[in-house]
């Protein structure tokens, strides 16, 4: 399962890239708005930091298919071919996905709340289909269940499209989809920080260090102990 950061804050992106095996960054207009910065500057900085080959997802803004295509062409020109253009899964969006497929521009069908949207995105040639788990839960449905259904539909129809699950509220939801073999998850920093968040783990590591320091002296590491 690919693991992406769902945020545009450079401090958070740098911090999480440093710690974890991250495959890329996803953004949307609301995420860009949170930075309070010029969108072009932010996206250019993210691309510069993650490198030319890493996945970057940037959303088209136009509401009609022709406008979405123009947005997509401009996005790929500005941020490179490893950029996936997020296209909302509305009727005009499917038209845009079909057109962009013929132009070799990769798309992510976004704002997915139902399996039918994901099916149509896949059939229209999207590389990814992005269901919003937390937002589906908030509507009174089961976001994880819907996402698993989408995964099954993509597999049963042998689409090349992968699930890119989004809008998580906790790390167990991410793990549940990891077990189910979805293609990717894009996770906000606050949820990623809870991936490994257990007092027992910290306590175990503290005991190891204390036991070693009792043997070798306070603050001694293996590097210091073994240096020539
Ligand atoms: O990538 C889509 C995602 O950003 C939506 O997440 O947390 O705003 O529901 P959220």
How does this model look, in words?
- This protein is of the alpha/beta class.
- The protein is 54% helix and 16% strand.
- The chain has an eight-stranded parallel β-barrel with strand order 1-2-3-4-5-6-7-8, surrounded by six helices.
- Helix 1 (10-19) links the parallel strand 1 and strand 2.
- Helix 1 runs parallel beside helix 3 and helix 8 runs parallel beside helix 9 (171-180).
- The longest helix has 18 residues, at 199-216.
- The radius of gyration is 21 Å and the shape is globular.
- It starts with a strand and ends with a helix.
- 36% of the residues are buried.
- The model has no long low-confidence stretch (mean pLDDT 97).
- Residues 6, 26, 28, 31, 132, 134-135, 166-167, 186 line the site of SN-glycerol-3-phosphate (G3P).
- Residues 6, 26, 28, 31, 132, 134-135, 166-167, 186 line the site of SN-glycerol-3-phosphate.
Quick tags:
about 230 residues; alpha/beta; eight-stranded parallel β-barrel
Quickly describe the structure.
This protein has 228 residues and is α/β, with parallel strands linked by helices.
Mean pLDDT: 97
Q: Outline, from the CA principal axes? A: globular
Unique ligands: SN-glycerol-3-phosphate
Summarize the amount of helix as a percent range.
40-55%
Beta-strand share of residues: 15-25%
N-to-C series of helices and strands: EHEHHEHEHEHEHHEHEHHH
How many whole angstroms does the radius of gyration measure?
A: 21 Å
Report the span from N to C terminus: 42 Å
Q: What is the overall number of helices? A: 12
Q: Could you give a short account of the major beta sheet? A: 8 strands, parallel, barrel
The spatial strand order of the largest sheet comes to 1-2-3-4-5-6-7-8
pLDDT below 50 for ≥5 consecutive residues: which ranges? none
Number of DSSP-assigned strands: 8
């Amino acid at each position: 399962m690919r693991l992406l950061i769902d945020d545009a804050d450079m401090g958070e992106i740098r911090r999480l890239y440093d710690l974890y095996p991250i495959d890329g960054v996803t953004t949307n207009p609301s995420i860009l708005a949170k930075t309070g910065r010029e969108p072009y500057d932010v996206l250019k900085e993210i691309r510069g930091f993650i490198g030319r080959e890493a996945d970057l997802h940037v959303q088209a803004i136009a509401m009609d298919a022709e406008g979405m295509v123009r947005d997509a062409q401009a996005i790929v020109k500005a941020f490179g071919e490893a950029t996936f253009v997020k296209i909302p899964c509305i009727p005009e969006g499917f038209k845009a996905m079909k057109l962009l497929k013929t132009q070799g521009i990769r798309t992510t069908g976004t704002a997915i709340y139902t399996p039918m949207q994901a099916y149509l995105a896949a059939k229209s040639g999207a590389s990814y289909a992005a269901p919003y788990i937390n937002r589906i839960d908030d509507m009174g449905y089961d976001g994880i269940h819907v996402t698993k259904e989408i995964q099954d539909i993509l597999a049963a129809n042998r689409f090349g499209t992968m699930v890119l699950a989004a809008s998580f509220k906790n790390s167990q939801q991410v793990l549940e989809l990891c077990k189910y073999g979805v293609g990717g998850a894009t996770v906000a920093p606050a949820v990623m920080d809870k991936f490994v968040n257990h007092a027992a783990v910290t306590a175990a590591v503290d005991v190891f260090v204390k036991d070693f320091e009792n043997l070798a002296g306070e603050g001694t590491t293996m590097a210091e102990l073994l240096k020539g």
